[in-house]
C-alpha cells in the first residue's frame, strides 16, 4: 500500500510539472524513484539493526550509516578492544555485506616506550604456570600502534596476548604477527630436554625463581631459539652450550640479552 501511495504522488508531481509548461523536463521513471525510496528505507532499517547490536556505554559515541549493504562506523571509543568488537558486531548483522571503519580510539596518550614496557611486562606475567617458558612474544610500539610478534606454543597464549594489548589504555591499534608453533611430538621432546638441560644446571637455576622472567625456549622443527634476559655473559654462554648438547637439535640461536650490559659499557667509558 505504501509503495502505491508513493507511485501516486510521483505521478501527480510529474503531471504537474508537464502542465506547468517547463521547457525541458527530464522524465524520471516512477519505478526508479520508488526503488530508491525503498532502498533508503532498507538502509535506514539496517543502520538501526547495527546500532541495536552496539548497545551499551562502550559504543555510545559510535554512529552508523548504511548504503547499499555497506555499514560505515564513525565516532570514538575508549579502547581498541571496543573498536574491534564494534566492527565484528556490524559484520555479523544480516544483509551487511561490508564494514568501513572510521572509528577513532581515544583514551590517554602514553609515550611509546612506556606503553611498550608496560605491555611487555603484562604479557610476560600472563599465564604463568601454563608453560610460559616455551613462549617468546615480542612487543613493539609506534605512535600507539602495537605489533605483537615472536612465537606462542598454542593459540590460547596468542589470543591472550592479543586481548591484553587490545584492552590496554593508550593502544590505538593492535597488529597480530605472533606465530603459533606447529603441533609436533618431535619438537615437544626437544622442548622438555632443553628445559631440563638449562634449568637442571645449578648456575642457571636462578632463572626459574621469577617465573615471568625465565630463559625462554622456542622450538620449531628441531631449531631452538633462546630468548629472555640474563645477568651475565657467562650465563648467556652456558645456556647456549647446554642447549647445543640436547640430542636431535639441528640449530641453536642465542637471542638472550644481558640485563646489565648497558651499565657495564657505561662504566668502561
What does this 3D model show about the protein?
The protein is an alpha/beta fold and 269 residues long. It folds into three domains: 2-105, Histidine-containing Protein, Chain: A, CATH 3.30.1340.30; 112-180, Histidine-containing Protein, Chain: A (2-Layer Sandwich), CATH 3.30.1340.30; 185-268, Histidine-containing Protein, Chain: A. It has helices at residues 2-19, 30-53, 80-91, 112-125, 155-166, 185-199, 233-244, 261-268; strands at 62-67, 70-77, 98-105, 136-142, 145-152, 173-176, 179-180, 216-220, 223-227, 229-230, 251-254, 257-258. Strands 4, 5, 6 and 7 form a four-stranded mixed sheet that branches. A hairpin with a 2-residue loop joins β8 (216-220) and β9 (223-227). The radius of gyration is 30 Å and the shape is elongated. Mean pLDDT is 84; it is low at 1-25, 32-38 and 262-269.
Concise account of the structure shown:
The protein is of the alpha/beta class. It is built from eight helices and twelve strands. The protein has three domains: 2-105, Histidine-containing Protein, Chain: A (2-Layer Sandwich), CATH 3.30.1340; 112-180, Histidine-containing Protein, Chain: A (2-Layer Sandwich); 185-268, Histidine-containing Protein, Chain: A.
Q: Which topology of the largest domain does CATH recognise? A: Histidine-containing Protein, Chain: A
Biggest sheet architecture: 4 strands, mixed
Low-confidence stretches: 1-25, 32-38, 262-269
Report the β-strand fraction as a percent range. 15-25%
Cα radius of gyration in angstroms = 30 Å
**Helix and strand succession?**
HHEEHEHEEHEEHEEEHEEH
- Counted by DSSP, the helix tally is 8
Instruction: Give the strand tally.
Output: 12
How far apart the termini lie comes to 89 Å
What coarse outline follows from CA principal-axis ratios?
Answer: elongated
What is the mean pLDDT?
84
- CATH architecture of the largest domain, please? 2-Layer Sandwich
**Helicity level:** 40-55%
Question: How many domains, as an integer?
Answer: 3
SSE class:
alpha/beta
CATH C-level class of the largest domain: Alpha Beta
